[in-house]
Amino acid sequence: MILLDRVTKVYNRNSTALDRISLHVEPKEFVIIIGASGAGKSTLLKLLTREERQTSGKIVIGGIDYDKLKDKNIPILRRKIGVVFQDFKLLPNKNVYENVAFALEIVGYGNNEIKHTVPRVLDIVGLKGKEKRMPMELSGGERQRVAIARAIVRQPKILIADEPTGNLDPKYAWDIIKILEKINRYGTTVLLTTHNQDIVNKLKRRVITIKDGRIVSDRANAEYNPGTSKI
Ligand code: ADP
Hints:
This protein has helices at 41-48, 74-80, 96-105, 111-124, 140-152, 170-185, 197-203, and strands at residues 2-12, 15-25, 30-34, 56-61, 64-65, 81-84, 158-162, 189-193, 206-211, 214-219. A six-stranded mixed β-sheet has the order 6-7-8-3-9-10, with helices on both faces. Helix 3 (96-105) runs parallel beside helix 5 (140-152) and helix 4 (111-124) packs across helix 5 (140-152). The chain is an alpha/beta fold.
């Protein structure tokens, strides 16, 4: 489903952010991507969401060849990929329900569909009963749940979670990871970047380590290994 073949990204003459990355992720996999700051993790995710374009190499996701993707079709691609960020990026003037509903409104969903879908998704992330709360009135963990609800409300095939627990206390971080696992069990491919060694060890999932723009290890059921990664 996600296929990268010798993908290179050069931002400018001095900075090769990714250097011939090859990668294959099956549908419904849960993959953790680790690596020190500056290793190239964000660049990899930005290539997948088409925020950035690769300098060379091939990217195919869900049958879409990125070389053949026209700008007008980028929204179709983005519907297949939900993204969650470290800093939540909620709309501060909209309440919990409205933040999630907005993701449907902007792509033209009707009122009935929105009323049907939003409560179901808020239930999945454990926010039932908090629909009217404003982002300011929520804990960090709850804000991240809203962001996850918003990311999955259009039922993407892939969920990218870029350091989703980076701003959270450890006890709330694990709640977020459990929600990601639940979403993965429902059939969504999850790509998670994290610096949290404890999470990597406990999840026991496939772990891809990036160093200086290259994949230096790719292991199933992996634990954090300070020999191969500096996180
Ligand atoms: P990570 O997410 O692992 O911290 P990044 O993908 O952000 O790593 O960065 C990888 C490399 O690419 C770094 O050397 C960084 O300085 C460089 N880089 C990232 N974004 C840009 C950009 N927009 N312009 C120039 N260089 C960039």
